[in-house]
Amino acid sequence: MHLAVLNFTKTRSPITESIKPCSEYAVRLKSFWSYAFAIFGIDMCIRGHESRKKRIVFIVLAIIQLIIFFHYITGLIHNVALESTITKLSGYASIFACICVSIFNFWFMNRRRVAMTKLLDDSISYLSGHPECTKRVWQYSLIPSIGLFAITLAQASFASADVFTKDNAGIRTYNTLFSLADEYLYITRIVVGVEFIVSVLICVGFGNISVWFFNHMCHLVFYRFKHLNMKLEELLRSGKQLSSFHLAQYRAQHQLACQVTEELSCLWSPLIVIWMFGFILGFCFAMRALQTKLSIFLLLAFLADISRQLWLIVGLFKAASLVNVEAHKLAVKLVTFPISKSAFTDADKVICMEYYFNYLLLSERLVNTRIGINASGLFLLNGSSFLSMVGTVLTYVIVLYQSQ
């Protein structure tokens, strides 16, 4: 009987979630990410076709990124040919790493936009009945996005200001394709200044939006586990004996939440690895560039870039760690929860067996299963992996600062 009720509940749950009316903040969330990606020509929709206008914008931005990519390759080759030191190359390498990550990120997000949008809509619809949660996620999505955009805008402004305040000898270091007389160096200033602004706003700006969109999805999954745990905690605090139906229902809903977590990992796993590699490489080269004699504007630009990358990588690990912690939160409580022998009579042997079966399966899942966001199966994004990464980065920073 309990299994029949459970099967009926599992059958109805997707339909029930899909017809929940969206709250005000749920609608705002969907609109926010739709507009944010539309700026870069990516149509976040689940329909089969996309806007022609957005497609043109996407192609134009992709071409611009490729042009900037080849320009910085030329700059790197030119500096290597002049036997520049690693310290002198660090500025180029930091920006070049950012552009490489941006190109892959741009292509990847466009390729999987439909699946990502469907997961976003399903996750928001699940929380539509909890307006307080959607409001918090909305604030978490909006406020940091504005802060990251401000840092990116400051970085672009400082970089372009550095170009226009350099002397002729300094501006010639940016001209790697052809030589110009001093009276025509203003052309180089304009081209390089505009390129800095465009590359930062497009490459860096899109990277900010992509990473924070992933963090937003992690928070949606976190609140899914949180509300599921709150229901079970209420039963545990009430002092009532958990029924077989409660255990089976919780296990089924926990399984659905785990499937959403696994889908989130699968959709973003290759990109997470690229983000990690790009952030670590860009951060190390940016720190090394601070060893050189930089102008005040270029120094501020590098400091803004370092703070932005730190913000993104800490936010990424924090959001993913929340999912990992919340998914296992009730493991200790459930395992140590006392089971009353008098709760079942001899006539309830079938129900008793069903109860212990569900209890053991649920305990096994919570205790021995690693639930969370993984990076292509290489490691789980949690507090331990974050500390390991911090140790690795600090080691490389020390080595870079000691090398000449």
Number of helices: 13
User: How would you sum up the major sheet?
Assistant: none
**Overall pLDDT level:** 76
Label the overall shape: elongated
As a whole number of angstroms, the C-alpha radius of gyration is: 26 Å
Query: How would you spell out the order of helices and strands?
Result: HHHHHHHHHHHHH
Q: Strand tally, please?
A: 0
Report strand %. under 5%
Number of domains: 1
> Structural class of the secondary structure composition?
mainly alpha
Quaternary state reads single chain
Distance between the termini: 74 Å
Helicity range: over 70%
Brief summary of the model shown:
The chain has 404 residues and is an all-alpha fold.
What would you note in describing this structure?
It is found in: Cell membrane. Pfam families: 7tm_7. One of its GO terms (cellular component) is plasma membrane. Keywords: Cell membrane, Membrane, Transmembrane, Transmembrane helix. With about 400 residues, this protein is mostly helical. It has one domain (about 25-335, about 345-404). Helices cover about 80% and strands about 0% of the residues. It has helices at about 1-20, 25-40, 50-80, 85-110, 115-125, 130-165, 170, 185-240, 245-290, 295-325, 330-335, 350-370, 385-400. α4 packs across α8 (about 185-240), α8 runs parallel beside α10 and α9 runs parallel beside α12 (about 350-370).
Features:
single chain; 404 residues; mainly alpha; elongated; disordered N terminus
